[in-house]
């Protein structure tokens, strides 16, 4: 049995597995083998002696009161306290006695069963480690080579030890890939599918992809000097991202844009020339919304019943809305608020006329309105 332990430890080092996890896997496999060979109605335990690397198997028996006839009758998992005292005088009710089972007597059938159990559990351990690894990478950018494109135009990308999928819906409009292309994308989700095993979904349309690209391109973001507060995208067309500087000497927008737009242009190129608006974040909703509606110049913002009432000159309304409503949609997505635009200077039923306002300011103007009484 020493050889089996050495082989398993060797595999653990080759696969980069934790040695303690491998030991637990070996003992679990041995217990399952014992249940198949000796019977599942018994309780077993197993351990590896770290000094000798020998594998030991035990049958476990719980010590109970002699009055508990229900447990003692025909059940070898329990032993009366009187009998247990003969083995260990200091044992108490509720303790466990263990009897070592010799592994040399298991035979070839047991050895083959143990080998299958080990292979199965080592494979599960590898899969769990890979799953945990990629679960931690959700929202991060990864690189990979295209290995297949199916009939539904889903793109399969090989990333290290896994094959991930970039669904057609997660591609930027107009993108086409060929086998062998190196593709950059963000891990959108990782899950275990009963029929397909581990499933890793990629995306190039997620706002997280934009954020991840900016983190790679802008050192200040990666170093935590600039914080991305939120982002919104209409993939391949336009995006808005809100930024906050955590250092008094760093301009969040300027650092992200870069000299002559070098940094933001590099990100835009990866996104098929998507226009990216960088906005300085403000904790004051009115200011933040006013900035987010750029390039429109806003006169006033009022928050009312969870809605932002934005007043602006009539010649700025088209800018605030944007082509096909893209600017106001992105602003709403970024700020999380419904936005209503109101042109400044528009009269309402509650407003007084200019003549009446003049009369209120100048009592003598009443003569001009009503004449001499």
Short description:
This protein is α+β, with helices and mostly antiparallel strands.
Characterise this structure.
- This protein has 373 residues and is an alpha+beta fold.
- The chain has four domains: 2-134, NusA, N-terminal domain (N Utilization Substance Protein A, Chain:P, domain 4, 2-Layer Sandwich), CATH 3.30.1480; 144-203, Nucleic acid-binding proteins (OB fold (Dihydrolipoamide Acetyltransferase, E2P), Beta Barrel); 206-281, K homology (KH) domain (GMP Synthetase, Chain A, domain 3), CATH 3.30.300.20; 284-373, K homology (KH) domain (GMP Synthetase, Chain A, domain 3, 2-Layer Sandwich).
- Helices cover 38% and strands 28% of the residues.
- The protein is built from 14 helices and 15 strands.
- The chain has helices at residues 2-15, 19-38, 69-72, 81-87, 107-135, 207-217, 219-222, 252-257, 262-270, 285-292, 317-321, 326-335, 354-361, 366-370, and strands at 43-48, 55-64, 78-80, 96-101, 141-149, 155-159, 162-166, 182-193, 197-203, 226-234, 238-245, 275-280, 300-304, 307-312, 338-343.
- The strands form four sheets. It has a five-stranded antiparallel β-sheet. Strands 1, 2, 3 and 4 form a four-stranded mixed β-sheet that branches.
- α1 packs across α2, α6 (207-217) packs across α9 (262-270) and α10 (285-292) packs antiparallel against α12 (326-335).
- The longest helix is centred in the N-terminal third of the chain and has 29 residues, at 107-135.
- The model is unreliable at 347-373 (pLDDT under 50).
